[in-house]
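Hey, resending since the last one bounced:
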Amino acid sequence: MTPPDALTISEHQLLQAYATGIFPMAESRDDTGMFWVDPRQRGVLPLDGFHVSRSLARRMRRGGYSLALNTVFSNVVDACAAREETWINEEIRGLYISLHDIGHAHSFEVWQDGELVGGVYGVTLGAAFFGESMFSSQTDGSKLALAHLVFHLKQCGFVLFDTQFLTPHLASLGAIEIPREEYRTRLAEALDQEADITTYPVSYRPHPTVQRKTQTS
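The structure tokens again:
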């Protein structure tokens, strides 16, 4: 498929692009254009390979926070973009809000004392979740969001968590890199399956890794 003009893309064309393995980015917040990205090495987070460190396990056992899905999607996008350098410009922001409106973009949120303290947003297609960005306004906010999101996605039948790139932060949580062709094979398999991120209600449940750590500590 020839990628659509990034300056005139619709939410449906964006979904078609994801299905071929490409995604858009902007140079900066103030950039008026977008470009397509198709990494030679793709970051993925195995749904059975998330690494829960001892410190994160202690934080999860301590609790004191709650989880939610899609309650403040645009706020999560804005929080992800609220940094000195960002690839999320107004055009991209609008596209993902449109995807959210038609049920293909979702935010997974961590709340504490009535405040949004961490979150992740991404796109769903078939049994694939394409993680777009995450943020944290308190220590471990994004790690908590990712840990519970991975568990939730697996419970809901997803088979692929695409992180696009591999950062040191994601690598510390269990993410890996795979070649483009292997990614496309995994993507095709995921698109042939169905999953629904809303299958189960989002509520705090002890992560199985944390339970094992508790039982053996």
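The chain has one domain: 40-216.

Sorry for the duplicate.
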